Amino acid sequence: MSARDWIDKDFYRELGVSSSATDADIKKAYRKLARELHPDANPGDTEAETRFKAVSEAYGVIGDPEKRKQYDEARRLFGGGLRGFGGGSGGFDVGDIFGGANAQGASGSFSGLGDILGGLFGRRGQGSSAGRPRRGADVDTEVRIDFLEAVRGATVPLRLSSPSTCGTCNGNGARPGTSPRTCPTCNGAGLITRSQGAFAFSEPCRDCRGTGRIVDDPCPECGGDGVSTKSRTLTVRIPPGVEDDQKIRLAEQGEPGQNGGHAGDLYVRVHVTPHAVFGRSGNDVTLTVPVTFQELALGTTLTVPTLDGKVSLRVAPGTANGRVFRVRGKGVVKRDGAAGDLLVTVQVSVPSKLSDEAQAALEEYTKATSGQDPRPELTAMLKQRSD
């Protein structure tokens, strides 16, 4: 695909999202379309297959944060496409843009655009080295841990199947003992400039696929790509206090870079399984304790669990239902030493059945307290409206 074709395409519309969509929205839209359009789900449907390829192509660009940024910048500079440029008799040479030349003078808006578009095509323009180091792509994965592991921290193994630098050729794509040679078609630039109508444009060299190098004797392991898919196990340290849906970044644990470039990062999204008893609010741990009416009315001492033991709480006579007791320092302890609290809420538990003796005792209690109004404000309001 040429540079012109690429810029003229609206990848956001292809995925059915707006240009302001979040990365999560883009991924969700892609997964939905990929499931619907996948050839396995639509055998013999050429239209679905074409759409599937277009959706995959779109996600390959705007699904990568770095490529998306470059794509947005290029679209901004060209106002949505290359059509309509070159209004003069001779037009302008898009190859100059890719080559890093300034088509509008030293301060023109096209300066450096070759780096922007070159990064998206996996190459650099004429005048720059096709073998320039490029950073690898970031990788996303997920892990599930339980509530106490999230609070205290944990070490978990992660098994990943992802591209990595080929160990046989060390990433150069050539069989051990041989080396790639400079592509004679593009002289190592990775680009070919062609004329079409009123102007010229650049596109990846077909002979070297935009790399600027020819591998005559490919590596038997990676087939000349310099990258092979491998399964690897990483030991990931989950820091104490991590929250549900939080992302942890592991620097340079993503896909390998090219031509000596740095590897991308690995982002681990953590899912926390809820606890049967404890809840969480920020750094505070929450706990609801069922109590009887008489415990609140007469007062009592409650023994409640904490994350690392137990504590006693004195409940004064006449305590209201729903009262929250705060136990300092018994919450989540972060890596910096900051600790939250344990928040204990007392909640009256109403029995579903009563024994005859309990029924009689409650009826006697009702008679003894018949003069008490538990809702005086409502009673006063109702009286005013009836007068």
TrEMBL record:
<keyword id="KW-0346">Stress response</keyword>
<comment type="subunit">
    <text>Homodimer.</text>
</comment>
<dbReference type="InterPro" id="IPR036410">
    <property type="entry name" value="HSP_DnaJ_Cys-rich_dom_sf"/>
</dbReference>
<keyword id="KW-0862">Zinc</keyword>
<feature type="domain" description="CR-type">
    <location>
        <begin position="153"/>
        <end position="231"/>
    </location>
</feature>
<dbReference type="Pfam" id="PF00226">
    <property type="entry name" value="DnaJ"/>
</dbReference>
<feature type="binding site">
    <location>
        <position position="183"/>
    </location>
    <ligand>
        <name>Zn(2+) 2</name>
    </ligand>
</feature>
<keyword id="KW-0479">Metal-binding</keyword>
<keyword id="KW-0863">Zinc-finger</keyword>
<feature type="binding site">
    <location>
        <position position="169"/>
    </location>
    <ligand>
        <name>Zn(2+) 1</name>
    </ligand>
</feature>
<feature type="repeat" description="CXXCXGXG motif">
    <location>
        <begin position="183"/>
        <end position="190"/>
    </location>
</feature>
<comment type="similarity">
    <text>Belongs to the DnaJ family.</text>
</comment>
<keyword id="KW-0963">Cytoplasm</keyword>
<dbReference type="Pfam" id="PF01556">
    <property type="entry name" value="DnaJ_C"/>
</dbReference>
<dbReference type="InterPro" id="IPR002939">
    <property type="entry name" value="DnaJ_C"/>
</dbReference>
<feature type="region of interest" description="Disordered">
    <location>
        <begin position="365"/>
        <end position="387"/>
    </location>
</feature>
<keyword id="KW-0677">Repeat</keyword>
<dbReference type="InterPro" id="IPR036869">
    <property type="entry name" value="J_dom_sf"/>
</dbReference>
<keyword id="KW-0143">Chaperone</keyword>
<feature type="binding site">
    <location>
        <position position="208"/>
    </location>
    <ligand>
        <name>Zn(2+) 2</name>
    </ligand>
</feature>
<feature type="binding site">
    <location>
        <position position="186"/>
    </location>
    <ligand>
        <name>Zn(2+) 2</name>
    </ligand>
</feature>
<feature type="repeat" description="CXXCXGXG motif">
    <location>
        <begin position="219"/>
        <end position="226"/>
    </location>
</feature>
<feature type="binding site">
    <location>
        <position position="219"/>
    </location>
    <ligand>
        <name>Zn(2+) 1</name>
    </ligand>
</feature>
<feature type="binding site">
    <location>
        <position position="166"/>
    </location>
    <ligand>
        <name>Zn(2+) 1</name>
    </ligand>
</feature>
<keyword id="KW-0235">DNA replication</keyword>
<dbReference type="InterPro" id="IPR008971">
    <property type="entry name" value="HSP40/DnaJ_pept-bd"/>
</dbReference>
<feature type="zinc finger region" description="CR-type">
    <location>
        <begin position="153"/>
        <end position="231"/>
    </location>
</feature>
<dbReference type="Pfam" id="PF00684">
    <property type="entry name" value="DnaJ_CXXCXGXG"/>
</dbReference>
<feature type="binding site">
    <location>
        <position position="222"/>
    </location>
    <ligand>
        <name>Zn(2+) 1</name>
    </ligand>
</feature>
<comment type="function">
    <text>Participates actively in the response to hyperosmotic and heat shock by preventing the aggregation of stress-denatured proteins and by disaggregating proteins, also in an autonomous, DnaK-independent fashion. Unfolded proteins bind initially to DnaJ; upon interaction with the DnaJ-bound protein, DnaK hydrolyzes its bound ATP, resulting in the formation of a stable complex. GrpE releases ADP from DnaK; ATP binding to DnaK triggers the release of the substrate protein, thus completing the reaction cycle.</text>
</comment>
<dbReference type="InterPro" id="IPR001623">
    <property type="entry name" value="DnaJ_domain"/>
</dbReference>
<feature type="repeat" description="CXXCXGXG motif">
    <location>
        <begin position="205"/>
        <end position="212"/>
    </location>
</feature>
<protein>
    <recommendedName>
        <fullName>Chaperone protein DnaJ</fullName>
    </recommendedName>
</protein>
<feature type="repeat" description="CXXCXGXG motif">
    <location>
        <begin position="166"/>
        <end position="173"/>
    </location>
</feature>
<feature type="binding site">
    <location>
        <position position="205"/>
    </location>
    <ligand>
        <name>Zn(2+) 2</name>
    </ligand>
</feature>
<dbReference type="InterPro" id="IPR001305">
    <property type="entry name" value="HSP_DnaJ_Cys-rich_dom"/>
</dbReference>
<dbReference type="InterPro" id="IPR012724">
    <property type="entry name" value="DnaJ"/>
</dbReference>
<feature type="domain" description="J">
    <location>
        <begin position="10"/>
        <end position="75"/>
    </location>
</feature>
